[in-house]
Amino acid sequence: MTRLVGVRYPVYAEADIIIDCGDETVEQGVQRVCESLSEHTHPQKVHVALAQHSYDVLIGSDLISRAGAQIAPLLRQKRVVIITDDTVAALHLPRLLASFAETGIETEVISVIGGEESKSLSCYGEVMTRLLSLGIERGTTIVALGGGVIGDLAGFVAATALRGIPFVQIPTTLLAQVDSSVGGKTGINSPSGKNLIGAFHQPIIVLADNSALATLPRRQRVAGYAEIVKSGLIADPDLFAWCEDNGSDVLSGDPAALAEAVRRACVFKAAVVTADEKEQAKQNGRALLNLGHTFGHAIEAELGYDGRILHGEAVSIGLHLAMALSVKLGHAPEEDLARLDSHLRSLEMPTSFDWFKESFSAQTLLDHMTRDKKMQNGRISFVLLHGIGKAFTSRDVPMESVRNLLINEGCQP
Ligand SMILES: NC(=O)c1ccc[n+]([C@@H]2O[C@H](COP(=O)([O-])OP(=O)(O)OC[C@H]3O[C@@H](n4cnc5c(N)ncnc54)[C@H](O)[C@@H]3O)[C@@H](O)[C@H]2O)c1
Ligand SMILES: O=C(O)C(=O)C[C@@H](O)[C@H](O)[C@H](O)COP(=O)(O)O
Ligand SMILES: [Zn+2]
Questions:
Q1: Model-level pTM?
Q2: Which ligand is nearest to the CA of 173?
Q3: Which CATH architecture best describes the domain 281-408?
Q4: Ligand 2 atom 4, closest CA
């Protein structure tokens, strides 16, 4: 059993899902909450109870068509600016606009090119300039309609426009529904590294419309699935076991499996974020959500965020590498590495550098890792595993072990 230090989850009486673990461990709390979920009908509400900015995550079908009614009572001014990307705008914007029109909400739209390249300083500058030219006020609300790129970019725009205006997350990818739309991490990439420019800025509500996932390509489902497996590996072994039983249905786009995956992952993420909103816990807090990311972000930075690799694909190999490093350092049993690899490979998820058809240098990846924002006094904080469902943070990983692992895994020295 893994216990997150000092975790106590506040009660939220109106939510369908009450995270009030008292002295329960995270595993017990998440298991109890997931059991109660099956008793409820859509939409389901997961409450993220934070000291200053509590909010609901609604999960259900066709929420985009009902967004106006959900959002209107939360608005300070009946005016929103929707930030989206061109692909999502073509597929899902019309029903969102119709819903806002029905509720008398004034709307403007800023659309960017889809994909990681839009999480850049130049795109941020263009969006901000356009936003300010609209004559917004502090009561104007930003609505992020799209995947994690749009959520991170629009959230950062909202965090910095007029020193902070409200924003709503309407995630349309699996990755955004299971991970990025919840928790308030916003930001953009820099040539020096992934997400190095950003702010914590919590949304006022998250509408995870499972129907939007119907248009998502399989490659994007794979990317989102990696973050679900990550959640199970960190502290939810039941979720990992659920993935072993249901992962192929999730990846084939089965609506019920997708909806269940989103519910389970949101409950998990809400619990972790509630316990350590700004990643300040010295050990085993929100930083655990970075499992696989020290490797993954280095791979993404090395390829320059140009679309050759998706964040979730990099995370998938990062999960394998984090478990392999944990085994190498004597923290985790070989069987758990075999179990993880067998699951990921059975679904054709990336577990090896060969998958990327690119050659990587261990030294270059190590250089990227040293620019990670979790560096402290020159030491990298790694998220390691004692086994499946048992993650922990460590600053004691010898860089030579990481280098040797990368070379064993097929990198050039
Ligand atoms: N803030 C956080 O906590 C957090 C967590 C995890 C990941 N992230 C970030 O999220 C980003 C990745 O997000 P992503 O995987 O959603 O990528 P993305 O936002 O680039 O979306 C992937 C692609 O899918 C398209 N798309 C979106 N919704 C669609 C739909 N319903 N149907 C068809 N196509 C659709 C988009 O146009 C885009 O081309 C990365 O930048 C990562 O760093 C942030
Ligand atoms: O919400 C978090 O905390 C996470 O770490 C979730 C990650 O999946 C996500 O990719 C996040 O953006 C990475 O955090 P970062 O602080 O390393 O940028
Ligand atoms: Zn991630």
A1: 0.92
A2: 1
A3: Up-down Bundle (1.20)
A4: 289
- 148 has binding-site annotation: yes
Reduced 3-state DSSP string for the chain: CCCCCCCCCCCCCCCCECCCCCCCCHHHHHHHHHHHHCCCCCCEEEEECCCCCCEEEEEECCCHHHHHHHHHHHCCCCEEEEEEEHHHHHHHHHHHHHHHHHCCCEEEEEEECCCHHHCCHHHHHHHHHHHHHCCCCCCCEEEEEECHHHHHHHHHHHHHHHHCCCEEEEECCHHHHHHHCCCCEEEEEECCEEEEEEEECCCCEEEEEHHHHHHCCHHHHHHHHHHHHHHHHHHCHHHHHHHHHHHHHHHHCCHHHHHHHHHHHHHHHHHHHHHCCCCCCCCCCHHHHHCCHHHHHHHHHHHCCCCCCCHHHHHHHHHHHHHHHHHHCCCCCHHHHHHHHHHHHHCCCCCCHHHHCCCCEHHHHHHHHCCCCCCECCECCEEEEEECCEEEEECCCCHHHHHHHHHHCCCEC
**Measured from the CB, is residue 381 less than 6 Å from ligand 2?**
no
C-alpha angle 269/5/156, rounded to 5°?
40
Tens of pLDDT along 252-310? 999 999 999 999 999 999 999 999 999 999 888 999 999 999 999 999 999 999 889 99
Instruction: Dump pLDDT digits (tens) for 18-75.
Output: 344 445 555 555 555 544 444 444 689 999 999 899 999 999 999 999 999 999 999 9
Q: Is 172 annotated as a binding residue?
A: yes
Q: Which residue has the tokens 């590495």?
A: 337
User: 189 in ligand 1 pocket by Cβ < 6 Å?
Assistant: no
- 382-387 and 185-190 strand pairing: unpaired
Does ipTM top 0.95? yes
Q: Per-domain residue ranges for the chain?
A: 42-216, 281-408
Output the CA 290–ligand 2 centroid distance in Å. Answer: 6
Residue labelled with tokens 């090896």: 352
Fold (CATH) for 42-216: Rossmann fold (3.40.50)
